[in-house]
Amino acid sequence: MQVSVDPEELKRRIEAGIPGSSAEVTGDGHHFQAVVASPAFAGLSRIAQHRLVYDVFGAELGDRIHALSIKTTAPTEAAR
Amino acid sequence: MSESQISDAIQAAIAENPVILFMKGTPDAPACGFSARTVAVLQSLDRPFAAVDILPDPRIRQELSALSGWPTIPQLFVDGELVGGCDIVMEMYQSGELHELLGLDATAGEQAGEEEPAPGAPLTIENRL
After folding, report:
1. Contacts A68 to B, Cβ<8 Å
2. CATH of B3-128 among 3.40.50.300, 3.40.30.10, 1.10.10.10, 3.40.1190.20
3. CA-wise closest residue to B74 among B57, B58, B87
């Protein structure tokens, strides 16, 4: 069993890694769900949006972070 | 078998199959909840798809992710393009975008796959090599 990871750590790292983002991360220490909003997502495909989030964690995904489920929104689009 | 041969086989499989899912396990026996959910969505659409189990050789996943730039499994490709993993496939299914992408009518849901004969058993990367 891997060492448990605090969802708060993931939240802080996403918010630090993606400009202007706000993230809500829940999880059991191994499997996480992240809801991320950032103007950086505007105009990007879902693939590109999710890649930005994956890129924050790199090789930790599938290893230290066993699974990360992602939902992304671009707040500027939602506000219109 | 070398890494580059595996990579070539993956690229060939993606090129030859209009809808192909790289997953953990098989459609009949998925080995991961994310793969299971993605398979369930595809099966509900009644559209034939190829499936590749990435578990038999760790290099399959390694080469696939190197090609796609996508770190996680499953990965769905349609017409040679990466669509996404479980989260994106679920979102697109719920919004009707997946039906559109696969050339299905989201409202009717009956008229799937007539034009294309279903491939037989899902292929695996092994039987290509």
Report:
1. 72
2. 3.40.30.10
3. B87
